[in-house]
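Records of this kind hold a single protein each, on a pair of labelled lines. With that in mind, the following record should read easily:
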Amino acid sequence: MSRTAHSFERKFRLSKKADIERVMRKGCSVRNSFFIAVFFRNDLLNSRIAVSVKRRLGKAFLRNKIKRYVKECFRKNKESYPDGYDILFIARKELADSLKSSKISFMEISGSLRKLGKTIGDRHDEKTSACNNQLL
């Protein structure tokens, strides 16, 4: 099996500062207890993601763990997310606290992210231009 089959490909990364700022400025958001997802339509055939974890949520190893989990969840569950969106996942304090105390597993985080992806897809299906921010 090739290494690229298990890597987070560059075409799925939202890395330019201007793109991230555009998502923050013009995007809609949905949230649950662990993440806020800000999303905005792009002109690509695939969705791209970025992960933001604030320094106050914990030490570097915890912040990096959260980023790895989100990227891996996205990589394994791309079909749960609609195509053609730039998505910024912002970790919330509840996630960091749950990871610190080992109260949450990778599967629970994955389920939480899949629900957000489904909500983004539902918003896409509604064909509305207005953003009605929604709490899950």
User: Anything to note?
Assistant: Residues 9-123 form a domain with the Ribosomal Protein S5; domain 2 fold (CATH 3.30.230.10). The mean pLDDT is 87. The CA atoms of residues 2 and 115 lie 30 Å apart.
